[in-house]
Specification:
The protein has 286 residues and is of the alpha/beta class. The chain has 2 domains: 45-212, TIM Barrel (Alpha-Beta Barrel); 216-286, no CATH class. 48% of the residues lie in helices and 13% in strands. It has helices spanning 2-9, 15-18, 22-27, 29-43, 57-60, 82-85, 97-110, 123-132, 140-148, 150-174, 191-197, 199-206, 229-232, 248-255, 274-285, and strands spanning 47-49, 65-68, 72-75, 115-121, 178-183, 217-222, 239-242, 260-263. Strands 1-4-5-6-7-8 form a 6-stranded parallel β-sheet. Strands 2-3 form a two-stranded antiparallel sheet. Helix 4 (29-43) runs parallel beside helix 7 and helix 8 packs across helix 10. Bound molecules: coproporphyrinogen III. Coproporphyrinogen III (CP3) binds at residues 16, 22, 25, 49, 51, 53-55, 67, 72-73, 135, 182, 184, 223.
Length: 286
């Protein structure tokens, strides 16, 4: 492993080049560990994020998907009917053993020098992919289901909440110190709809927080969360990831002092000159 990493940093081909399929990279323990450790080896950050994707648990409910170059994730049989729901199995964590094994190895590799970060999608955001069949710009099918098939959607979201709770426990038991939950597309809902269709299912996950170790930190990130801040304070999480459209000071005032804040950097800064990026990061540390 040490030898492999030295080779990569010496400019030889990276796993992304050697193993072009995303599924292969994200389902092979050695590759997950190698890719996750790249930033650690280069920068020695305070935290190491497992290389994975929010859609990985789909494999464990037997919802087949692939990641295509241009289209991104593609779900072979989207679920939109009561019949379709029957295809959804309880989560089988053995099918995600590569995630657990990778977390265990990462924890050993970094020792006490950094936190290990695990992550997963929120029920609403995962449901979008299962219902729409992939990436969408309009969310038309799932948003119309809120009105035309509310019972069906509630059954799907509850199933996902329970499965994700199991997945959180699994990641924590395998060594994750932090769990970040991505409700990436929560901000696509009007605030009252987010309260009805996303929030309760996020809370359902943490209602099983007793299963978690008390020292595990939970972070919630919602893309476009500016208008949702007052509704997310009581989701039971420790930290809110503020997106870059919210002023950090304003976000802090609106959230109050009882909750942590993080994030806030527009990812586009990664393509700016280094001093500009450094200044932007220092702005947040004050
Ligand atoms: C393209 C895509 C995938 N999966 C997904 C997409 C987005 C499609 C859309 O816009 O709807 C879905 C997804 N995956 C992830 C999120 C949440 C984060 C976010 O809001 O961007 C979302 C919404 C986590 C992730 N997904 C990924 C990371 C990075 C993990 C890491 O580097 O440690 C995260 C946090 C990795 C990922 N996942 C995928 C690719 C191609 C990659 C890049 C890595 C590679 O090709 O080797 C497949």
């Amino acid at each position: 492993m040490e030898k492999e990493r030295k080779k990569s940093s010496a400019g030889e081909r990276l796993p992304e080049e050697k193993y072009p399929s995303f599924r292969e990279r994200s389902e092979t323990t050695d590759l997950i560990v190698e890719i996750s450790l790249h930033p650690w080896n280069a920068f020695r950050p305070d935290g190491v994020n497992i290389f994975s994707d929010i859609l990985m648990p789909l494999l464990a409910f037997r919802v087949e998907f692939d990641v295509e170059d241009v289209r991104g994730p593609v779900i072979q049989s989207p679920i939109r009917t009561k019949e379709g729901l029957k295809a959804l199995h309880p989560i089988d964590l053995e099918k995600l053993s590569f995630v657990g094994d990778s977390l265990k190895i990462l924890r050993k590799e970094v020792g006490v020098d950094a936190a290990i970060l695990g992550f997963m999608g929120a029920p609403w955001t995962i449901a979008i992919y299962i219902v729409e069949g992939g990436t969408t710009r309009t969310y038309t099918t799932i948003k119309s289901m809120c009105h035309t098939a509310p019972h069906l959607l509630r059954t799907l979201l509850s199933h996902l909440a329970q499965a994700i709770a199991d997945y959180v426990v699994f990641q924590v038991e395998s060594g994750a110190h932090y769990i970040q939950i991505f409700d990436s597309w929560g901000g696509e809902l009007p605030p009252d709809m987010w309260k009805r269709w996303s929030k309760p299912y996020i809370k359902e996950i943490w209602s099983r927080k007793d299963v978690l170790k008390p020292e595990t930190l939970i972070v919630l990130y919602i893309n476009g969360n500016g208008s949702l801040l007052k509704h997310i304070k009581d989701t039971g999480v420790d930290v809110i990831g503020l997106d870059w459209t919210v002023d950090m000071g304003d976000g802090r005032r609106r959230l109050g002092s009882g909750i942590g804040v993080q994030g806030n950097v527009d990812p586009a800064y990664l393509f700016s000159p280094l001093p500009t990026l450094t200044e932007e990061i220092q702005r947040l540390a004050i």
